[in-house]
Amino acid sequence: MTATPVHQFADHAWLEFLELNPVWATVQGIETWDDQLGDPSAAGRSVLIALVERWAAQIDDLSRAELSVEDTVTLGLMRAVVLRLRGADELRLWEFDALDQINGPQSLIGELARFQRTDTPQRLENLFKRLAAYPAWMAAHRANVEEGLASGRTAPAPVVKRCITQTRELLEVPAEASPLMTANAGLADEQRATLLSAIREHVQPALSDWLAMLERYTAHVRAGDGVCHLSDGVAIYRHAIRSYTNLDEDPKDIHDYGLQRLDEIEAAEASIATKLGHETVAALRVFLDDDPQNHAETPAEMVALAEEWVLRAEVEAPKWFGNPPEEHCEVQAVESHAEKSAPAGFYYPPAEDGSRPGMYFLNTYEPSSRPLHQIVPMTFHEAVPGHHFQLTTERHLHELPAFRVHGALLACGAYVEGWALYSERLAAEMGLYLTPLERFGAWESEAHRAARLVVDTGMHAFGWSRQRSIDVLIERAGLSQLEAEIETDRYLAWPGQALSYMMGQREILTLRARLEERDGDRFDHQAFHDQVIGHGSLPLDVLREQLPGWVTPKHTA
Which residues are 360's β-sheet partners? Predict the structure, then answer.
């Protein structure tokens, strides 16, 4: 079948985007630009925004024709991508968004260690070319940050502090023990010697320059924590809300919804606490924090338990999905160089060419601080039936434009994270929580996402302090002190991203309720789940418009 003009446009746009973002391509398993790092400088930004404006014009032209449903969905996604990239440029977010303890430039070497293949001479040469380009790439990021210093638009102190700690720790590791050396332990001696020289010549000096800049930066950090303390903070946060949720929601409405959900969830938590013989939820949490049976003794034990939970979900999935993916989800511990600042868990989808499976990374740092009853729902969120099912299913949608399959994370965060949070609730229907404590962990996880609505809007729209966010996450969501600090600093680095989870879940639950009412006892759970994840990642407004036409009632005899 000949591809439609919309399909051809989206496929070409995806390649254009990857050419400007080659590391993104590597993470997707696409090796075409594995010898490049991209250009974060002013010149590179000019090329990107010119491309975005050309896409906008093409979208307008294509929209004039009569379109199929899938072409309409594709253009809806592309519009969301244009709005996000254009807004980031207009708001000059490059002036401070490189200050990021999760995806900041200091994390690149770890990403290359995870994802860049070096098993042929050409692949290894590609890595060497990237490392040679690393000093200029880092210098461009420093120049962007310097622009922010000049304009008075800077990052918050906690984020800068974490970036400094990360960079120092990377530099304290001898070049011989670099993540790149560890990941490429099987290279020949001569190849390892060349790699070691490249790390010493290109990587370590550039990281030293980055650290020196960060240390100078500490005298100029943002006056408060959230973006509302910037002169254009209101516009920045409204852009963030639209970028991550695809909805034009008022921060106050989001804040109030989060508080409402917290009240409802706390009632369910209190019921479980009472049944287990505890007078209050707080008393149950104290018990769980101290109970040795609720903690793994070693990182290896944590990983083994998570593997058991993934298998449990995979066994039950065919009852709830008509076409569950066959690929198993692999569980790995977060690497030692990243674990102190990394989230409790996260997921990377499989490589396009099948060379790498879907991977659920579990943070095993200080197992004594990570209660197992909280890791159970997180596993269903990150792995099965959450991110792994949705993102692996996308990889099989070969009839869709590549941008729909691979690039949707640029504009569909609330759909992706909403599905994963919906999966935690679906896990209860699937019978995956085997004890009241595991079910309590699921309610705590949902409380965590509701609290995110409260604290993200609190810090970025209403001027809350970091400490107030930490207190809410501990007192109302059951996080440990360590987790609350890590999570709060993540929200500071990524304004609006924390809204994705519950806003997306709310949309999926609302659509399911409407379809259950429409179809009655003919409502088809398998069809609903297959259709929600069967069209690639979608902006929430597009999902709302299209899903009712995709889900049909069950046939009756």
Answer: 331, 347
